[in-house]
Design brief:
With about 425 residues, the protein is of the alpha/beta class. The chain is built from 16 helices and nine strands.
């Protein structure tokens, strides 16, 4: 089997050296390594000329990174200021764009995908070839285990990836002909394109994800600042794509929860009738508007989209239920107890208790249920770490919510390119 390995890279020559060395130590050697580079300098290009490798290295450049280049490209798409950014330089390519470009110039029949920070096991290609030959599949997905060495990395892994390996696009093996025939990875986004790609592959090819983790990722963030930045940006890019609907619903609920706290207090904050920002009946208008929007989405989905298109809002019934429960809690003492504290129906601090209960449930889920489900040991979680894991997980969820909203706002101006076709074959579990 003739294999080209595709590696997108950006300003990380040390990582490139390590991954190329790991490929040279494979028990089955690929015939080509394609390095698709968007670095801000020529260091990796010069490195490939002198690198000691038993495998042929093909180098290709995709633009040249500079500070805020992708932001300028986004601004270029805005109609109001498009004129001022008409001559902007291309800048860096996102990893998916680099993978697609590398695949298009690869010389061999099979494509194996990596990134410059993921290290494959020495039997990765050998075992994948055996899987294809013995199980009759057309695509083998990657499976990556995230490594943690520092204390913060261990807390981060417990609250996000877990210690099981997870299915990934890096590590996948696929025929070049199939990949280029309408199954390239989504371009124009920093994250989420691989999820969309895997979904399309599942629907059109016989595939399998191995039980063993054949790749390791040793570069988890070591501090909360860089971690927060990554999760915010990744969620913003995920929001513009038709993926991760359950997660999007969660962040939408978090956003609704925030507005449910803010809106009823709005008039008190601005100073009631004396303020020009006073809005009469703002709470009732807010709840009625949200419910009407969701009901309209249900009618729209049922009557106009049928089965061939994507719904306007998914799981709308869950959102309506959440909003109605919240509305009932907020107005409980007013409607049922008439604000009479001696009434049997009066519940003091019911709104604060409801919000605290939601936060506590989320905290327990993030700190205990999620990490235990993802193979984090009880010895690590107790007696203290489960609290830190829960706090970090809940914090990152809160960070993702505005990222999702910003992505939804910017979606019309982000050019997302997805080639697609249909191949009537059966997937393998």
């Amino acid at each position: 089997m003739n294999i080209s390995v595709i590696i997108p890279t950006l300003d990380n020559p040390d990582d490139v050296i390590e991954v190329v060395q790991s490929l040279n130590n494979q028990s089955f050697l690929p015939l080509e390594i394609v390095i698709a580079d968007s670095s801000s300098n020529n260091e990796i290009h010069e490195l490939t000329k002198s690198m000691d490798s038993k495998i042929d290295i093909t180098y290709t450049r995709l633009g040249r990174a500079y500070k805020n280049d992708r932001l300028f490209i986004l601004l270029k798409n805005l109609p109001i200021i498009k004129f001022f950014f008409s001559n902007i330089k291309p800048g860096r390519a996102y990893p998916y764009e680099a993978s697609n470009r590398g695949s298009s110039i690869a010389k061999h029949d099979w494509l194996a995908f990596l990134d410059a920070t993921t290290i494959p096991h020495e039997d990765w290609l050998k075992d994948y070839i055996q899987i294809i030959n013995t199980q009759g599949v057309e695509v083998v997905f990657g499976k990556t285990k995230y490594l943690a060495t520092t204390y913060f990395q261990k807390i981060l892994r417990a609250s996000t990836y877990g210690s099981y390996g997870i299915e990934t696009a890096p590590g996948s093996l696929m025929k070049k002909e199939d990949f280029l025939n309408g199954f390239q990875i989504t371009e124009g986004v920093r994250s989420g394109g691989d999820v969309d790609w895997k979904n399309r592959v599942r629907n059109n090819f016989k595939y399998i994800t191995p039980s063993k983790s054949y790749l390791t990722y040793p570069n988890l963030h070591k501090d909360i600042v860089s971690c927060t930045k990554k999760f915010f940006i990744y969620q913003m890019h995920t929001a513009v794509q038709n993926i991760a609907h359950s997660i999007k619903d969660l962040y939408l609920i978090l956003t609704l929860l925030f507005t449910l706290i803010l809106v009823p207090k709005w008039n008190a904050i601005v100073g009631w009738e004396a303020s020009p920002y006073f809005l009469p009946n703002i709470t009732k208008i807010y709840f009625i508007s949200i419910v009407l929007i969701i009901l309209a989405s249900i009618i729209y989905n049922r009557l106009f989209l049928l089965k061939s298109s994507e719904p306007l809002l998914r799981n709308a019934h869950k959102l309506i239920f959440f909003i109605l429960v919240t509305f009932a809690v907020y107005n409980w003492n007013n409607y049922l107890a008439g604000w009479v504290e001696g009434s049997v129906w009066y519940i003091p601090h019911i709104t604060k208790g409801f919000i605290a209960l939601l936060c506590f449930a989320s905290f327990i889920y993030r700190g205990l249920y999620f990490p235990i489900k993802h193979n984090i040991s009880l010895n690590f979680l107790f007696p203290i770490n489960w609290f830190l894991v829960g706090f970090l997980g809940l914090f990152l969820d809160i960070v993702k919510a505005p990222g999702y909203l910003l992505g939804a706002i910017l979606a019309p101006f982000i050019k997302v390119t997805r080639s697609s076709t249909t191949k009537n074959t059966q997937a393998v579990d």
